[in-house]
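Worked example 2:
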Amino acid sequence: MDTIDEQIIGELTRNARISHAELGQRVSLSRNAVRQRVERLERQGHICGYTIVRPSDGPDRGTVTAHVLVYRQDRMRGGDVLAALRHIPEVVSCDVLSGQFDLLVSVEAASLERVQGIWEQIAQMPGVRDTVTALALSRVVSRRRP
């Protein structure tokens, strides 16, 4: 990636719906040259898909977010837990942690009841020793990084 690619990604981060012609004007390239670069950036994985981000408050929120800290029986051989978490559609991220906890599992579900069901499912997995769950009350910062 060169500086023009970085500028393209920056502009697309600010407005993913910008036309190739407008993007070309902003980075001093032709529309066709921008299109080719965007396609290359997609092939190389620098641009991965397009998403919709909804406001975190108001009537459209409708999502309950929870974070589950998981203690595994054996953190070095706990791959079965990781594999099982990959199959729960509401699990939006799972990070392996250093320190006291083994995993940080972030869940976004349609209801509090569904979060409870997921928590029960995780707690009953073979290899899970204990869990600690926190519900997100509000989101103060939400950014997508390029």
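The beta strands are 64-72, 91-96, 103-109, 128-135. The mean pLDDT is 86.
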